[in-house]
Amino acid sequence: MSEHGTSASARVPAADESSRVEKAGSVTAVDRRARNPLRGAAGRNLGLVIALVLVCVVGVVTAGDRFASIDNLMTILRLAAVLGVLSIGMTFVITGGGIDLSVGSVVGLSSVWASTLATQAMADDFHWSVIVVTALAVGLGAGLVNGVLIAYGKVVAFIATLAMMVAARGLAEMIANRQTQVVRVQSFLDVMRQDVLGVPVLVWIFAVVAVVGWVLLNRTTFGRRTVAVGGNPEAARLAGIDVRRHTMYLYALAGLAAGIGGVMMLGRTTAGSSTNGLYYELDAIAAVVVGGTLLAGGRGTIVGTVLGVLIFTTLTNVFTQNNLSISAQAVAKGVIIVVAVILQQRIAERSRSVT
User: Fold this and answer.
1) What's the rounded Cα separation, in Å, for the pair 151 and 294?
2) Which listed CATH number (1.10.150, 1.10.287, 3.30.230, 1.10.3470) goes with 80-354?
3) Ramachandran category for residue 87: left, alpha or beta (phi over 0 → left; psi -120 to 50 → alpha)
4) Cα angle for residues 229, 231, 237 (degrees, 5° grid)
5) Using only C-alpha atoms, what is the Rg of the chain?
6) Cβ atoms < 10 Å from Cβ of 11
7) The model's pTM
8) β-strand 199-200 against 195-196: which pairing, if any?
9) Interacting residues of 77 by C-beta distance below 8 A, sequence separation 6+
10) What string of pLDDT tens digits covers the 355 residues of the chain?
11) Residue 182: beta bridge partners?
12) Which parts of the sequence are annotated with region: Disordered (predicted)?
C-alpha cells in the first residue's frame, strides 16, 4: 500500500476516496518490507513453501509410493480445492476484522438444497446450471444474513456466525431428512468430474477463485477498504468508508464462497448430505491464520492462504496415509493453529518495538 507525502496532499486539496482509504489502511499497516524484505509477504511465503516441502518429505519418508503417486497428488488437490475456496472467502472476513464459523454448515446446506432439487421428478430435464445457481443463492443468502446481523444488528460476529452454523446444519438435516441425496443430473456430474489439461475441474475452480481473490484484495478499492476496516474501523469511517455496509459485503462474500464450495462438494461426492463441510470452518480459519493473515484483522494474504490450504491438506493426507486417528489429527491441527497465532503475536510485538 503506497504512502502519500505531505507535499502531494498540499497539491490536491480534495483527495479522492481511494487515496483516503489508503491513508486509513496505513494507520495500522505500515510497510516494513523496505527495511527488511524477509519480514514482508515474500519472507512469510518462503517460510510456507519450506514448510510444505518438509511435509511432503515426511509423506515420502513415512508412506513411500502411496504418498508420492500421481493419483494421491490429484486426491490432495481435489480435497484442497473445496477448502481453498472457503479459505479465500474467510481471508476477506478475517482481514476485515471478523470471523465466520458458519461456512462449513453453509456448504452442507447449499449442497443439500441443490441436491434435493436435483432429485425431484423433473431433475432429468434440469440444466446443470440450475444446481449451481441454487447453491450459490443459498450461500449468498446465508452470508447476507450474517452480515446484516453483525453490521446493522450489532451482534458479535462470533455469536452471529455460531448461530448460523447451528441453524444451517439443522436446516440441512431437516431438508435431507437425515438421508443422503444422490444427484441425478448427469450433465452436472459430467462437468464437475472431468479433467481439463489433466487437472481436475475442481482445482481449476479453486485457481480461478484464488486469482480473483488476489486481484480483489490487492488491486482494488474493495481490498484497500477491507484492510482499512480490519486495521482501524474508526480511521476507516473518518476516511469516508461505510464500515457497516462493507462489513456486510465481506460476510456475503464468505457466504458466496461457501455456496461455491457446496457446488464443488456435490461434484466431488455426487451427493448432498447434511454432514458435507463438517468442521471445514475450523480448517479454513487454520489455513488462513497459518498463511499469514492477521487474526486481529488489518492484513491479509491470498497467496499465503493458498499455501496454508496446501500445507493443511497435505498434512491431513500424510496423517491418513499413516493411519493416524481423526482425533489425533484434530489435536495436531489445534497445536499448529496455536503455534501460528503465538508466532503472529511475537512478530507483531517485535515490529512495534522496532517502530
Assistant:
1) 20
2) 1.10.3470
3) alpha
4) 40
5) 21
6) 8
7) 0.84
8) antiparallel
9) 199, 200, 202, 203
10) 444 444 444 444 444 555 555 555 444 444 444 444 445 677 778 888 998 999 999 999 988 888 889 999 999 999 999 999 999 999 999 999 999 999 999 999 999 988 887 666 555 666 778 888 989 999 999 999 999 999 999 999 999 999 999 999 999 999 888 778 787 778 888 888 888 988 999 999 999 999 999 999 999 999 999 999 999 999 999 999 999 999 999 999 999 999 999 999 988 888 888 889 888 998 999 999 999 899 889 999 999 999 999 999 999 999 888 888 888 888 887 887 788 778 777 766 665 565 5
11) 271
12) 1-26
Q: Which of 90, 302, 85, 297 is nearest to 215 (CA)?
A: 302
The DSSP letter of residue 118 is T
| Identity at 185, one-letter amino acid code | V
Sign of CA dihedral 305, 306, 311, 314: positive
Query: Which residue shows C-alpha cell 444422490?
Result: 182
